[in-house]
Amino acid sequence: MKKILALITLLLFAVVTVTGCGSGKAEKAATEKAATEPTKVGFIYIGPVGDAGWTYAHDQGRKYLEEKVPNIKTIYMESVPENADAERALENLVQQGCKIIFATSYGYMDAVQKVAAKYPDVVFLHCSGYKTAKNVGTYFGRIYQARYLSGIAAGKTTKTNTIGYVAAFPIPEVVRGINAFTLGVRSVNPNAKVKVVWTNTWYDPAKEKEAAKSLLEQGADVIAQHQDTPGPMQAAEEAGKFGISYNSDMRKFAPKAVLTGPVWNWGPYYVKTVKAVLAGTWKSEQYWGPMADGVVDLAPYGDMVSEDIKTAIESKKQEILSGKWDVFFGPIKDNTGKERVPAGQDLSDKDKLSMDWFVEGVEGTVPKQ
């Protein structure tokens, strides 16, 4: 009887031991799998990745991120409207396991705030907005610096002294760009004026091209844009005129028209931010990077751009890069003659981010949103 009891005890011990070892192995395997699984990073885009503009530039940044940071997987959703669909898209990315999400359009701001509040362990980055939270940061670049430089090219190129500007929505970001561009134009050509047409679109190739045509009919011989498609540049080329593109190098779409244009380089920012999150050092901030950071720049010059224009632009660019001078240093008047920035002063970032007035040289007023 004693031998039987001893045998039963030995068998029970063996079962417990094997079970314990199996459980330990399972836990170890699960831990190792979690350690090797890639971190998922999500993106939502306002337009298609093939728009050749804003979304294309962000998607190039996403690809750069995948190339430079090991063991991550990116997921993107394109053509997401700035309404309740944005909330659903963000939720979708969270459910797919994304731990870092970049929302790349101004109109996603409130959707980001709502969804981020439900998922405190997910880091959200919102492009061009101003609302933050513990797990929400904002990011943008001082594209107005590159716009000023592109204005120099336009101001030196125009023969009619009428420059057209195809603008998206009357929000501070767009108004600031128009003003910076106009200041650049008039720094080399005080007689030039800038006419603005609003499309109330980010991505509508046909509408944006027609807006450019209307400006050409009003005597504009250079067309600038704050739009996500090359439509305005194509309209300029078809009319035998010139253009200042935006977002990416658009010369291939209108090689005879495009002088240059402000461009985005999101890749380094995405790499820096994702690495910080993975390292546990990321903290919510409102990033607004200058040209010196490399997040904004000018596209390569078209063949028609003279050495005189290049020299003028590069000289001013060095002043911007040094930090000794910036676009909204006074004196600056608005287009009613009111002084907005006194001589020797710089417009505050707060005022830049809420800009709702036009500088001298821009025709018309800013529509109410």
Automatic annotation (TrEMBL):
Family matches, as Pfam families: Bmp
CDD domains, per database record: PBP1_BMP-like (cd19963)
UniProt keyword terms in alphabetical order: Lipoprotein, Signal
Signal peptide location: 1-20
InterPro entries (alphabetical): ABC-Purine-Binding, Peripla_BP_I, PnrA-like
Keyword Cytoplasm carried by entry: no
Lipoprotein listed as a keyword: yes
Domain ABC transporter substrate-binding protein PnrA-like: 39-323
PROSITE patterns associated with the record: PROKAR_LIPOPROTEIN (PS51257)
Domain of life: Bacteria
GO annotations of cellular component type: plasma membrane
Protein's name according to its UniProt entry: Basic membrane lipoprotein
Organism from which the protein derives: Thermincola potens (strain JR)
